[in-house]
Specification:
Helix content: 25-40%
């Protein structure tokens, strides 16, 4: 990641202040789409809950895939990867991306770099392309696009970015789309929404879907749950 002046936000966990701007994890875009009030409960009020089974399984699977990847992976700088991918397809896992400009950061599950395009893959437990999951992978695409800007001379003009969702633990890519201008505009607007939540210019809105509340790990601590 680029070197920046950073420090933790004094009141909101997981938020960093980088070069004077709030910076939040891209995974929040998924949480925001599910119920942004859960972000408030965990990161503003500081309510700590045990991780769900899905979260535990996901963490273990990510670790397993990372270990498998490291067995055959060759160390390379980001610039070297971009240069190599001009002529051959390469793969990277847990690739760090940071956009100080938009105020987001994260680790991409997997990136395929080819002579024709970059494919940004986010692994999910099921095979349904929820809007919140799409928001998250689009956030990675935006941060990746910002990360590669200094390397335009290596990348060239023709390589676009594709977003993809893959069923965790399999090769099944069940959703994909080009990260075009429309998708970029949508995700920038959503990031601005989250930035306004962090700065206090807008209020965190709870979901009105009782089914989401029933499966939420914060349901017993939430004062705005949509349950009878």
């Amino acid at each position: 990641m680029p070197k920046t002046r950073s420090k933790p936000h004094p009141d909101i966990s997981q938020v960093m202040i980088m070069d004077g701007q709030n910076n939040f994890p891209i995974s929040w875009l998924n949480k925001q789409g599910y119920c942004e009030y859960s972000i408030y409960l965990e990161n503003v009020k500081g309510i700590q809950m045990q991780p769900t089974l899905d979260m535990v399984v996901g963490t273990k699977e990510h670790a397993r895939l990372e270990e498998d990847f490291k067995k055959d992976a060759k160390p390379a700088t980001f610039e070297e990867m971009l240069e190599t991918s001009k002529t051959t397809e390469i793969l990277s896992r847990e690739l760090p991306v940071l956009s100080v400009h938009y105020g987001v950061r994260g680790y991409i599950d997997e990136v395929w770099m080819t002579p024709d395009e970059f494919i940004i893959i986010d692994d999910k437990p099921g095979t349904q392309a929820f809007a919140s999951s799409i928001n998250q992978v689009y956030g990675y695409c935006l941060a990746f696009k910002d990360t590669i800007k200094p390397f335009k001379n290596i990348i060239g003009a023709k390589r676009g970015i594709t977003a993809a969702l893959r069923q965790r633990g399999t090769d099944n890519i069940f959703w994909s789309a080009y990260f075009d201008n429309k998708a970029e505009s949508v995700i920038i607007n959503l990031i601005n929404r989250v930035q306004n939540l962090i700065s206090g210019n807008e209020e965190f809105v709870p979901t009105q879907n009782p089914r989401k509340c029933r499966s939420c790990r914060f349901k017993r601590k939430c004062d705005k749950r949509a349950l009878p």
